[in-house]
């Protein structure tokens, strides 16, 4: 895991400086879909699907990325999403995300406008997927900006629509401050056999500072190794984890990299992979319940 992590750290730390512009309105482009080779493996034999939205990773020197899946996007997608390919068929759209440059340099209104462009692509991709899925069960998986996109997708397409909600196996929404008030019907997962629920957390190795970007009142923390519990549990990676009163997932039990770019981010880059095996196992358990139901 160390080499892959270092690669992601290098990607996220590399910012360009250029004049931000937005790209033209596109149709859906799939980075991963069942039966097509790509960074997610192309598996097509699982009984449920996973709809994955990658985090902020584009190194394009613009406000919004275009629909080119650069090597940094393929790398992060393979790093985070490919392990789920043993439990679900992965669909991953390319979207005009707000780039690293845009998020780092633009004022609030411009960032919000860029995120709206990004969400438009995710909404179209979801509708495209839903038209082809024939009502199959689906797990939503997102990290960071991907979580921002999927939280809004649940609110607009799933939370209040019984037919769409019936297809939701679960939602894994990491590193994005999901709140208990975000959804009307999608609640935090408290049991491995529960379906239609959400797993959400942000990882830290030390107590988050007062100006932390993650955690705080009303933020959901679900320990993937001990759903519904505040107890310490061992992750499949060998680390220990527990949800704290700050509503972050405190990780320990071994050497960990420093927070990047500073302490307010905690172990943001590790959110998915430090608990990857637990999350994959959870998808398998929830799939069994979903299919039995």
From TrEMBL:
Database matches in Gene3D superfamilies: alpha/beta hydrolase
Coiled-coil segments: none
Record has Nucleus as a keyword: no
Swiss-Prot/TrEMBL keywords: Signal
Top-level division of the source organism's lineage: Bacteria
Signal peptide region: 1-24
InterPro entries named in the record: AB_hydrolase_fold, DUF3089
Protein name (record): Lysophospholipase
Organism: Rhodococcoides trifolii
């Amino acid at each position: 895991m160390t080499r892959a992590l270092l690669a992601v750290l290098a990607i996220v730390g590399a910012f360009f400086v250029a004049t931000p512009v937005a790209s033209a309105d596109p149709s859906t482009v799939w980075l991963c879909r069942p039966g097509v080779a790509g960074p997610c493996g192309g598996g097509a034999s699982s009984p449920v699907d996973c709809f994955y939205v990658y985090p902020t990773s584009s190194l394009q020197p613009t406000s919004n990325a275009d629909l080119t899946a650069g090597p940094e996007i393929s790398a992060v997608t393979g790093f985070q999403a490919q392990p789920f390919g043993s439990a679900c068929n992965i669909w991953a759209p390319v979207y005009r995300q707000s780039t690293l440059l845009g998020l780092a340099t633009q004022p609030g209104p411009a960032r919000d406008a860029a995120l709206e462009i990004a969400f438009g692509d995710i909404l179209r991709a979801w509708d495209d997927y839903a038209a082809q899925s024939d009502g199959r069960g689906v797990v939503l998986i997102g990290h960071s900006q991907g979580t921002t996109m999927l939280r809004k997708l649940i609110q607009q397409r799933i939370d209040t629509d019984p037919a769409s909600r019936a297809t939701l196996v679960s939602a894994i929404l990491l590193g994005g401050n999901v709140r208990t008030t975000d959804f009307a019907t999608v609640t935090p997962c408290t049991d491995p056999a529960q379906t239609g629920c959400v797993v959400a957390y942000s990882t830290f190795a030390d107590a988050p500072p007062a100006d932390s970007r993650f955690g705080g009142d009303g933020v959901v923390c679900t320990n993937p190794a001990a759903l519904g519990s505040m107890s310490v549990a061992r992750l499949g990676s060998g680390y220990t984890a527990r949800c704290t009163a700050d509503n972050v997932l405190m990780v320990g039990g071994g050497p960990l990299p420093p927070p990047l770019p500073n302490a307010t981010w905690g172990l943001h880059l590790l959110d998915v992979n430090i608990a990857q095996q637990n999350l994959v196992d959870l998808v398998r358990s929830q799939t069994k319940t979903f299919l039995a139901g």
